[in-house]
Amino acid sequence: xxxxxxxxxxxxxxxxxxxxxxxxxxxxxxxxxxxxxxxxxxxxxxxxxxxxxxxxxxxxxxxxxxxxxxxxxxxxxxxxxxxxxxxxxxxxxxxxxxxxxxxxxxxxxxxxxxxxxxxxxxxxxxxxxxxxxxxxxxxxxxxxxxxxxxxxxxxxxxxxxxxxxxxxxxxxxxxxxxxxxxxxxxxxxxxxxxxxxxxxxxxxxxxxxxxxxxxxxxxxxxxxxxxxxxxxxxxxxxxxxxxxxxxxxxxxxxxxxxxxxxxxxxxxxxxxxxxxxxxxxxxxxxxxxxxxxxxxxxxxxxxxxxxxxxxxxxxxxxxxxxxxxxxxxxxxxxxxxxxxxxxxxxxxxxxxxxxxxxxxxxxxxxxxxxxxxxxxxxxxxxxxxxxxxxxxxxxxxxxxxxxxxxxxxxxxxxxxxxxxxxxxxxxxxxx
Length: 431
Hints:
Layout lengths: L2 H15 L4 H15 L5 H13 L5 H14 L2 H13 L5 H17 L2 H18 L5 H12 L9 H10 L3 H7 L1 H22 L12 H12 L1 H10 L5 H19 L5 H34 L2 H11 L4 H15 L5 H8 L4 H7 L3 H15 L7 H10 L3 H24 L2 H9 L5
């Protein structure tokens, strides 16, 4: 490792540690590297612009963000909640089940864990606490845990970013996330059943079954979004970016036209908030592309591949090692940074070991989402604390059980690749 790389990384992690936004920390670290190495600093800008121009797929990210924000601004969340309450609220621990199922459905529209937690999650927490059956900490913890499903069920912003750095098919990544997302939801519902019986949470007043068809009809337009998205992708009608544009347009049509729940002023705020979110993600992506230049200059991927090849490591052992690393990094780093900066280092080794890149990508995204609820720096814990005012201490004290079942689900996905690959292969994937 060269002295310029050591200095650059020291600046990067030092600035990140004192709270500097990640994008600016990366940019400063790269500038220090280039300066000490005696290279032209304008190389950084050239590398970023060139990679961004090649990244047409990246346009899907702001479009999915717009889609999620329109869903939050309209009455779509309320309709989905009423549908979920009618279906699963009648069972013991009903609002916990509603929390899981609502996040599962909403994830098919947002692609973002933060959007899920800050939007529909905030509403469910208030409902759970007002019922008097659930503590604030438990309501917040199950909401944070279920929000991790958001980027697993398609659409998924992290999977779009992973497709960019790995070259894996975004269509197959989207399909590969469906069963893992359902597995995560199922395990969290089992945990909720156990805790509900242990703490005697009780059930909600059952919605008459005769009302279920009407509630289903009202929620159907929102429920159709993931199916429309996958149809557009797998029929060959659209590219992933065009499918994201259709998702945003569809969200607007049902929110403004069908439900009449969004006005021009609200739409302005939606676009402003979406632009801010997209800009923050774009800065991190652009900075990470410059960091990729540094990584290539230092031959780090080749060095890692040669070390691992010499160690004669099996594919399963390698997957366990990388997932432990990502799980630890997820405690302190954002998922986008992990996927953009850390994951590309191991793609060549995955290919050399014969590890399927779709399987690997879904594992990385699931693992990165688990990191979002891992104390002490899990970002979803801070998001829910910010939008509800529930103290972090109460949230963290309840999050450990959910963290445990999600790690078990991840281990199952590692040792049983067919959980991820069965659906993509059913639709023609040859991996």
